[in-house]
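Lab notebook, bench 4. Still working through the backlog of constructs that have no structural model yet. Next entry is a single chain of 357 residues. Request: give me the structure tokens for it.
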Amino acid sequence: MKIAILGSDREALDAYQYFTELGVHVKLFGEFNPSMDLSGVSHKNVKIARVHKRFIAPSHRFESRSRMADTFRVVFNVNATSEIERQKLENPEIFEKLGEDVLESLKNSIESFEDFDFVCFSNELYRPNAMGAANVCALNEKTLRNDERLTYHSEHQSCLDAIKQARNLCLVGSGRENLRLLNELKDVYLEDLTKTIQLVTSEEIPFDGIDLKDKELIDGFRDLLSKDREQFNSEVTEFEKKIMEWRSLEPHIKAKTPAPAEPKPRLMIYNSAVVSSVDKLLDREGLFVTIEGSELLGGAEQLKTLACDRICVDQGLYLDTEKIRGLDHNEEGFYSLIDMSLDEIKEDMLKYFSKQN
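Model written out:
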């Protein structure tokens, strides 16, 4: 039995380890972060082009067999540059006879494939939803998509150090990666009283749709809210004390002494709201997120523009159907690591072996 796992995230690595420990032949495909330790892992650092059955079309049905009689073909793009450079060093006399134009053409990305009995997939076939209403792009979002201050879903982890350094952070969406990010930012945020976090979600209750298996992350978020409230209440108490002292000053001294600044909440949650636009201004630093709230979402009508240094978006994922056009809508042996547990996938795979027996 051969299993392909299409992904470069934690779910894919967990699946690789799970099936490898069962003694199965497994290979991992994905675009991996250079910092990832993949020693001992059978993998290809490639971009997935498409997945289809080796012979049969999506509509094909056998009279007495399932579609699992045919294997899956995983097609991927291979960057030939490194291989060409290696061969150039090993056989310089051959490459001297080739013109530069020919050498450059050989370096173009080429397609290759491998066949498997089963395919499991995570982020290599999923794409992050946009930040706007209905999970489509907000105004100007496409223009800013390549801005390094804007990250989506699993991209947060590769930019975690930069995100931790942001003074004013805006999180859009209450998906798992944003919940995980808040847990990782908790200590840094609570220690630095100059930092602010703004969370925008269309839900009435943030992270209400998170799976119960992520209870630890939910508890961490609640702890963040509780400690942030304690800090704010402490600042309010200190402010009330100082304002009373200021008011008791002699008039001539009071006139020369500025009033104490009233504390402002550092963690703001805008629930029942959606992002309508995101902007970058020529005369001001940072990014600007315009949000709209509605009673249709269970909240109050509101229209605000939020200033921030970075934006972290997680409104869930959608399946890139263009890459799986060659598969049936409910293809057997093709498993989402997002929607199914590893135990569920294993049990489903075993059904096909019991059929053969």
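Notes after review: The longest helix spans residues 215-247. The chain has two domains: 2-125+320-356, 129-316. Flag for follow-up if needed.
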